[in-house]
């Protein structure tokens, strides 16, 4: 087991040191330690560019106000044909309204839900949408109602089956 661990460590060291030892097509090693040393001489110019960009964005936020944070500016106007137009540039022909929209929000109106009747609301209050009352136990009074409902459904199905067989010209089966 010790020999196996030593072999794995040797492979790991060889894999890490290999690019520093292996020569490339130009005769130099593939990697050099100087590639890992940061270029400190370019830091002041990078910091200056970052600061200027930060200041210009800050001025933009001050001009546009707090509504602009994380939002997109959109212009809205009514066209000559009466339809609404939206653009990222103001209307060249006249008045346009400036809107700030959150790109993560839905701006399309949802479909209105139909009004529910009182019975449906009571059923929804009993449990999940599958109509099973919670808890899943039934009282004796409810059991007799369930049995009556099942008999009525069976009678209705028998009537429909008989009407269908008569329409097809068959004689109904007698149980």
Give structural notes.
Residues 67-103 form the DUF4124 domain. Residues 116-140 are annotated as: Disordered. This is DUF4124 domain-containing protein. It holds the Pfam family DUF4124. There is one protein chain. The protein has 175 residues and is mainly alpha-helical. It has a domain at 134-169. Helices cover 46% and strands 9% of the residues. The protein is built from four helices and three strands. The protein has helices spanning 2-21, 43-64, 118-126, 140-168; strands spanning 72-78, 84-87, 97-101. Strands 2-1-3 form a three-stranded antiparallel beta sheet, with no helix packed on it. β1 (72-78) and β2 (84-87) form a beta hairpin. The radius of gyration is 39 Å and the shape is flat. It starts with a helix and ends in a 7-residue tail after the last helix.
Task: Give the tags.
mainly alpha, flat, 175 residues, 4 helices, 3 strands, three-stranded antiparallel sheet
Write the layout of secondary structure elements.
Layout: H1 2-21, H2 43-64, E1 72-78, E2 84-87, E3 97-101, H3 118-126, H4 140-168
What is the mean predicted local confidence, pLDDT? 79
Total DSSP helices: 4
Q: Report the major sheet.
A: 3 strands, antiparallel
Bin the strand percentage.
5-15%
| Coarse morphology | flat
Question: Topology as H/E string?
Answer: HHEEEHH
Q: Helical proportion?
A: 40-55%
* Physical arrangement of strands within the biggest beta sheet: 2-1-3
SSE-based structural type: mainly alpha
How far apart lie the N and C ends? 80 Å
The parts where pLDDT drops under 50 for at least 5 residues are none
- The Rg value, from CA coordinates, equals 39 Å
Task: Tell how many strands the DSSP assignment holds.
Answer: 3
């Amino acid at each position: 087991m010790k020999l196996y661990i030593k072999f794995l460590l040797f492979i790991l060291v060889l894999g890490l040191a290999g690019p520093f030892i292996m020569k490339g097509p130009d005769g130099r090693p593939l990697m050099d330690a100087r590639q890992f040393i940061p270029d400190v001489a370019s830091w002041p110019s990078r910091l200056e560019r970052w600061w200027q960009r930060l200041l210009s964005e800050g001025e933009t936020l001050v001009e546009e106000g707090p509504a602009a944070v994380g939002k997109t500016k959109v212009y809205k106007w009514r066209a000559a044909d009466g339809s609404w137009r939206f653009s990222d540039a103001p209307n060249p022909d006249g008045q346009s309204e400036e809107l700030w929209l959150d790109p993560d929000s839905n701006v399309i109106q949802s479909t209105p839900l139909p009004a529910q009747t009182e019975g449906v609301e009571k059923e929804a209050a009993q449990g999940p949408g599958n109509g099973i009352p919670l808890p899943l136990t039934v009282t004796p009074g409810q059991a007799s109602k369930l049995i009556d409902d099942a008999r009525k459904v069976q009678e209705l199905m028998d009537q429909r089956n008989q009407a269908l067989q008569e329409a097809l010209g068959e004689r109904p089966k007698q149980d």
